[in-house]
Amino acid sequence: METVLQISWYLGIDVSKGSLVAHLGSSSKSERRTFVNDSKGIQELLSWLGDRGAVCKVVMEATSRYHRLCERALLKAGIRVDLLNPRRARGLAIGLGIADKNDTVDAKVLSRAAQMIEEAQIKVHTLQAQDLKDHSRSIDSIKESAATFIRQMEGLDPDSKAYLAYLEATKALKKLAAKQEKEWAQTVKEDAEMLRRYTLAKSVPDVGHVTARIASVELPADLNERTLRQICGYAGLAPRSNQSGNKDLPPHIFGGNEHLRTGLFMSAMHAVYHGKRYLPFYEALKARSISPARTKGAPHLIAIVAVMHKILRNIVAVIKRNSPWTQEAPEFKNAKNAVQAETA
Questions:
Q1: End of a domain among 97, 121, 145?
Q2: Which has the closest alpha carbon to 189: 216, 220, 218, 219?
Q3: Are 24 and 111 members of one domain?
Q4: By the 8 A CB rule, do 198 and 192 touch?
Q5: Which of 106, 179, 219, 273 has its CA 20 to 30 A from that of 302?
Q6: How far apart are the C-alpha atoms of 76 and 241, rounded to whole Å?
Q7: Contact (CB, 8 A) for 223 and 232
Q8: What angle (nearest 5°) sits at the alpha carbon of residue 312, between those of residues 310 and 313?
Q9: Residue 203 lies inside a defined structural domain of this protein
Q10: Do the domain assignments include residue 271?
């Protein structure tokens, strides 16, 4: 019978470009160390943990790309890792009555967060899935660089050296992006879960290869444990109320996964202007949003975000029920646990 090790140590790591401030705590004692944020420093951190790593839960700050090297090393060592947005970590500190703000305090708060977060909430993508996400984001960065050069070309003489230089760079970047798209489509076949997500997402109307690629890697690992509203909030597409006392402002969206939103935006624009699937819905909502009574933002963007929201729900529905898109929503025997796809 397999022995299940009980968590007895909680490690919080405050991450910056150059350092890792670690606070390790248990029910009876605590330790604190600072390591350089490079391969050597991370190995020193693992040596410091020693056998405690097998019964340790780690919470790190998700700070751009600077946490990735340490996160991968911890996962490879079989240590349980969760990521916490710095804003949420700061909110927790304030809730605990901690007013100070520095790396040492942040590491201690993250250690407390590791103790407070339930085990069921801890779920991260596999290393292979993370590599697919990194590859996906690199493709989008290459495309964005090409788009930047195209904007730089505006207003230049087509015969000028500057124009020709931008043109050559744009062509090279587009060619590279196309090559990487093909390589990603081959690599995803090596990860069964990511391939399943990608294939099912691609079955949704108006969702092409690019949006399916982005959705498959950017949606959270614990997708099945989250409600649709939580997932829409994760994407930054769930309107949040803003009411207090006599103040009652229009609901608005903010935050969320910008990479996922970018992919959904492309599908939404296609669904409205090319596929025409959501054109009536878009036009009706846009006309209604012209009135400033309960809306905030440009009517076009309000309507497009609503279309993005619908497409995201459809993608999540097919992935959760593990079957491709159908025009008619399937009937479920257990309606309580069913995930109904949007067909509007």
A1: 121
A2: 216
A3: yes
A4: no
A5: 219
A6: 41
A7: no
A8: 65
A9: no
A10: yes
For tokens 């909030």, name the residue.
Answer: 233
pLDDT of residue 4: 44
Round to whole Å and give the CA distance between 236 and 67: 22
pLDDT at 126: 77
What residues make up the domain containing 255? 223-337
pLDDT of residue 120: 40
Q: 218 in a domain, yes or no?
A: no
229 and 258 in a single domain? The answer is: yes
Q: Which residues pair with 34 in a beta bridge?
A: 21
pTM of the model: 0.70
pLDDT band at 342 (very low <50, low <70, confident <90, very high): very low
**How far is 193 from 199, CA to CA, in rounded Å?**
10
CA distances from 116 to 120, 125, 234, 245 (A): 12, 21, 21, 31
Cβ 141 vs Cβ 165: under 8 Å: no
Give the C-alpha separation, 33 to 35, whole Å.
Answer: 7
End-to-end CA distance of the chain: 51
Which 8-state DSSP code applies to residue 14?
Answer: E
SS3 266: helix
**94 and 130: one domain?**
no
DSSP 28: S
Q: How many residues does the chain have?
A: 344
Contact 237, 312 (CB under 8 A): yes
Location of structure tokens 């009574």 = 293
| Per-residue pLDDT tens over the stretch 207-249 | 999 999 999 999 988 888 888 888 888 888 876 655 555 655 5
For the chain, strand residue ranges (E) read: 9-15, 19-25, 30-36, 56-61, 80-84, 240-244, 247-252
Regarding whether 287 and 271 lie in a shared domain, the answer is yes
Please state, in angstroms and rounded to a whole number, the distance separating the CA atoms of residues 58 and 269. Answer: 40
Shared domain check, 130 and 28 = no
Q: Is the separation of the CB atoms in 146 and 159 below 8 Å? A: no
- Residue 217 inside a domain? The answer is no
